[in-house]
Each structure stands twice: as structure tokens, then as C-alpha cells.
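for ur thesis appendix - 5-oxoprolinase subunit A. copy paste whatever u need, i formatted it the way the template wanted (i think)
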Amino acid sequence: MAHIDLNSDLGESFGPWRMGDDAAMLDIVTSANIACGFHAGDPAGILATLRAAAARGVSIGAHVGYRDLVGFGRRNMNPSSAELVGDTIYQIGALQALAHVAGTKVRYVKPHGALYNTIAHDARQGADVIEAIRAVDPGLVVLALAGAPFVEQARSAGLAVVCEAFADRAYNADGSLVDRRLPGAVVHDPAEVAARMLKLVTDGTIVAVDGSEIALDAQSICIHGDTPASVEIARVLRAKLASQGVSLVPFATSHG
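the 3d part is after this line
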């Protein structure tokens, strides 16, 4: 039987500003990438999301990003290696402490936003993130963009890597994500998302914006928690996969 993990970016609300519906999404996904306070999230809200995830048996990952609250971590930055290593360690450590209090633990790391896209191809920043993860816990799994050079870079450094595809994002023919500033970068139709991801799980391919089919080796599917109608997209996707006999399993459990 085919199986896949569903992950979502959660814990992103800040004070009175609500971002997404964490409780509803946690009823659907199997892994949660929790904001660590640098691109989004405040300690009280992060703790509440961790407790909700723990109650549902959802696997926890540290969603580390640039120090960029105003830009939601989506602005390109070029911190020094010392800064990036330190910031990444700091974020993982903060989430580990909150997770411990919530009765769960951090099992993986997924860089967020601009940092995620930068390290996909920037070997220097990628090495900094790898160094930070190894310094904290070399047993942490890394969740990364399928097909990106960073995947082999992290594996060569001894880290376990799980590759993901994005349910609600359009792809270029080279396997990169379409820039969010361009029209059609985000896919909003739940039925279209479900059909695209079923094809990925069963055939290992996805249709790019130019109509070509690209191969993606992905063990997890990401649904952005801040996308409009994200909960509905996740529900329709989960139902579609289940109807075709695809089981949903958190990837981190298979890596200890």
C-alpha cells in the first residue's frame, strides 16, 4: 500500500493576529512544522499549538527561518555564517523546550520561506543550517525540497533527509517553485490540488506550469497553513488519498 506524510506550517499566529486554523489543520495532517518565533509565532501561541499537536499524535518539526517578523520570513537575507548558525540553534532549542513542556518532542527541522528557498541552492547557507542541526542533535531529520542540491549536501553531512512536494504551489519545469509574486504561483482549487498530489503519490510526477511532467521523489506533502481555504484543501486532499488506498503516516516515526 502506498503511504505519504502530510505536513503543514503552523504556530504562526502572533499575539492577537490569527494566522490559519491550527486546531482544524492538526486534525488532518500527520506532521506539523511549528514556527519558532523568528518569522512568526509567539511563545504562548506556539505552546498551545504544540499541546494540540501532542494530543493528536502529530509529529513535530522546528520551522526555523530568518529573523524577519515583518516580512514573515519571505524576504531574501544574507546573514553571516555565525549569525545563521546561532539563529538556527536558538530556534531549535526554543522549540525543544516548549515541546518538552507540551509533552512531545522535536523530531525534525524544516527551514521556512526565503531560508528554505535559499539553501536549496546556496551551499554556504545550507552548510550553516546543517552545522546548526548537527550541533543540536544529529538525529534530527531534515525536511527539504525534493530535487534540490541541498538534499545531497545534507545527506553527505550525515543527516537523514526526507523530501517534500507542495500541494498548493505551482512548479517550474526545472522543479523549482514558481515565485509567489507571479500569477498562478499558489493553487487554490481543492479538487485540483488533490488530483495533482494523487498523481505525485501514484506516479511520482507533477505537471509544471508549462505543461511538462517533472519527476519528484517526495515522501511528504506540504499544505501551507496560511493559504486561503487551506483547511478545506487539506480535507479534500486527505479524503482523496484515503479513497485511493493511500495511508497517511508521519515520516519522522520511520526515522526514529
